[in-house]
Structure formats: structure tokens, C-alpha cells
Amino acid sequence: MTLDPLLPRKVLFIGDSITDCDRLRPVGEGVMGTPLGTGYVALVAALLTARRPAHRQRIVNMGVSGDTVRGLAARWLSDVLAIAPDHVVIMIGINDVWRAFSRTNWGDWQIGPEEYRATLTRLVTETRAAGIGVSVAGPFFIEPDRTEPMRARMDAYAAIAAEVAAEQGLGFIDVQAAFDRALASLHPMALAPDRVHPGLAGHMIIADAVVAGLFGAL
To answer: Which domain holds residue 22?
Structure first.
């Protein structure tokens, strides 16, 4: 399902540091400074403005650095349902995977695939029950070798996100596929030194994928 960029609508983006990017607190919305942060959410708004100057979307950024799907669940009422958007874009899962690789003492902070699937499904179901549209963007790892352990596990979580979207009849934005196309010509270091936090070019790759997934060709 694609959205009409000319139809008045409040679109809320929620996720981890990739979404956050130093957005305005408590609510990432406005016109002064960088209320949407400095990442893909701001670029989505910029692309809409540049390519469809008559667009009527209100863009809101509610990303929080470090979040897992468990963190999203803890703040869903205040940061999504209470804001009453017309549509929500969820991109979560990178920290759910990364914490299993980055340190050995994350303990209960690690999010297994069963909890990831169940929690994401519950958030989607609750949001749709409130009359809010939902799109799911898959997590990614900027590494071309699909046998690399973290890339393989991230692919598994992205597959879960895609399955949840399909089961609920939602749009799925395959961010990993967008990065894979770029990685056919670029080294991962050209996009993200840690293979997780993109520079501006990487955020543009995400923004292009999100705009195409939400609005089609502009």
C-alpha cells in the first residue's frame, strides 16, 4: 500500500539511533533547527518537499537511541498512540541483534527472535486497532557477506519483520536490499565505519527506500 503524498496526514517514524539522529525532544516535529534530526527522517521530509512541493504530510520523529523492540513497547502508549498519527513507520531490530555481538554481559537485554516477533506483532496489532496505518521497515547490517555471523542473524530478524508485515497485510520496506545494491559498488566503510550507523549517503539510501515504499515514485 502506498500513501498519497497530497493527502493531509501525520506520519510518525519510530525506532532506534538510526531514526533518532538527535531529533527534538520530547516530540521530534517542527520547522526551526533540526527537529527531525539529521538522518533519514529529515531526508524523507526534504525529498517530499523538493519533489512534491504541495505535499501535505506532517512528519514526526520519535526514535530513541539504543532502543530494542522491548524499548519501543515500553513507550508505545506515550510516543505513538498518545500522539495519534495517521500512519506509523517502524524500523527496529538492529540493537536486538547487535547486543548479542557487541558485549558478553548484556544478559536479559538481549532480544531473542521469539520475543522480537511477538512484540512487533503486538505493537502492530494494537496500532491498527487504534485506526492507525502501519508500515514496517526491516533492520539492516551494512556488510555484503551474508555468511558473516551478525549479517546472517540480522537477515533472520529482517525476515521476521517481513513475515509480520505480510501476516498483517502491511507494507514492508526492505532497507537491507537497498544497502545491498549500494554494496555491489561500495565498501561498507564508505557508508558506515561500524557497519551500523550510516553517514549521510547511507541515510539517503534509507530515505530513498522509505519514500519509494510509502509513496511510490515521486
So the answer is: 9-215
